[in-house]
């Protein structure tokens, strides 16, 4: 399982939007048989809204390159706010690193293929404005979803929620019984697989954060009645669900939750987010892949 690590030493959105990074991602994906790319953002991020923007830019640009080449199965994770030594304790087959960091890092990686690149030279901290939603802003937060075929949009949602939460993150995972009408339902992952994927990703992003997984069979799950939850993290597409949760809490005499909205990865609100990254599309790709295999194995 070839694993590639790419260090990014800027959190400047103008840099991340430039043509430089897509070319860099493309070089990473050309490494022989790569099936896992970790992108390590080195500057510390101190605001959840800024984090949302950065993750959206990085994941979307990397995924565009993959989809254009038909490599939708390559796994991409974006890590942030981790000590540099964390990366030297992991196993990598190839590391892409900015030239100005090469000397301090190279000796710490053993038996690893190294590629240095010139580009953004200055590690930038956050903007001049005071952060509004800092790390560990809430003690207890919650979010929910199917988390089927965990994708970049899920990862952004989970990353921002973990960033905002200091003690406990409650994740409602839609029960199989509520998914019977989903498209390409035969390719839905069992709830045990979906739970495991969510837990593994959160342990990678923020080890030590208490994770509570709840199988939900209604719209609200525990968010409608649990008094200790302070915030609900939702995508822009599911804001109305947050409003439903707060109406339910009000009916139970509980304080409303702060609704923190994360941007949808891909798509536009005007057309109902038709082009957004979705589990449905990934299941469709699985269907197409199976159909293609069947044609090869059983030609007419």
UniProtKB/TrEMBL annotation:
Pfam family, one: CTP_transf_like
InterPro entries: Cyt_trans-like, Rossmann-like_a/b/a_fold
GO molecular function: dephospho-CoA kinase activity; nucleotidyltransferase activity
Keyword terms: Nucleotidyltransferase, Transferase
Domain Cytidyltransferase-like: 143-284
UniProt-listed GO biological process terms: coenzyme A biosynthetic process
Transferase is among the record's keywords: yes
Name of protein: Related to Phosphopantetheine adenylyltransferase
Organism: Saccharomycodes ludwigii
Source species taxonomy: Eukaryota, Fungi, Dikarya, Ascomycota, Saccharomycotina
């Amino acid at each position: 399982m070839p694993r590639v690590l790419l260090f990014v030493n800027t959190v400047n959105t103008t840099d991340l939007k430039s043509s430089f990074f897509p070319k860099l991602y493309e070089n990473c994906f050309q490494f022989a048989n790569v099936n896992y790319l970790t992108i390590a953002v080195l500057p510390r991020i101190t605001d959840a809204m800024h984090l949302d923007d950065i993750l959206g830019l990085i994941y979307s640009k990397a995924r565009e390159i993959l989809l254009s080449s038909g490599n939708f199965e390559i796994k991409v994770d974006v890590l942030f706010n981790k000590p540099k030594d964390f990366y030297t304790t992991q196993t990598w087959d190839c590391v892409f690193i900015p030239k100005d960091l090469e000397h301090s890092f190279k000796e710490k990686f053993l038996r690893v293929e190294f590629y240095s690149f010139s580009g953004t030279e200055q590690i930038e901290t956050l903007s001049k404005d005071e952060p509004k939603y800092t790390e560990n802003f809430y003690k207890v937060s919650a979010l929910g979803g199917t988390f089927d075929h965990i994708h970049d949009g899920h990862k952004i949602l989970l990353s921002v929620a973990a960033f905002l939460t200091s003690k406990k993150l409650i994740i409602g995972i839609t029960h199989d019984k509520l998914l019977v009408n989903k498209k390409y339902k035969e390719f839905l992952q069992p709830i045990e697989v979906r739970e495991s994927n969510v837990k593994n990703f959160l342990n990678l992003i923020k080890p030590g954060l208490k994770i509570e997984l709840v199988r939900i069979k209604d719209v609200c799950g525990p968010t409608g009645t649990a008094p200790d939850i302070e915030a609900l993290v939702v995508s822009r597409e599911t804001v109305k669900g947050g409003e439903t949760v707060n109406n339910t809490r009000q009916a139970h005499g509980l304080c409303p939750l702060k609704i923190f909205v994360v941007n949808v990865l891909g798509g536009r609100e005007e057309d109902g987010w038709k082009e957004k990254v979705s589990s449905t599309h990934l299941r469709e790709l699985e269907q197409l892949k199976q159909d293609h295999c069947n044609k090869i194995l059983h030609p007419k």
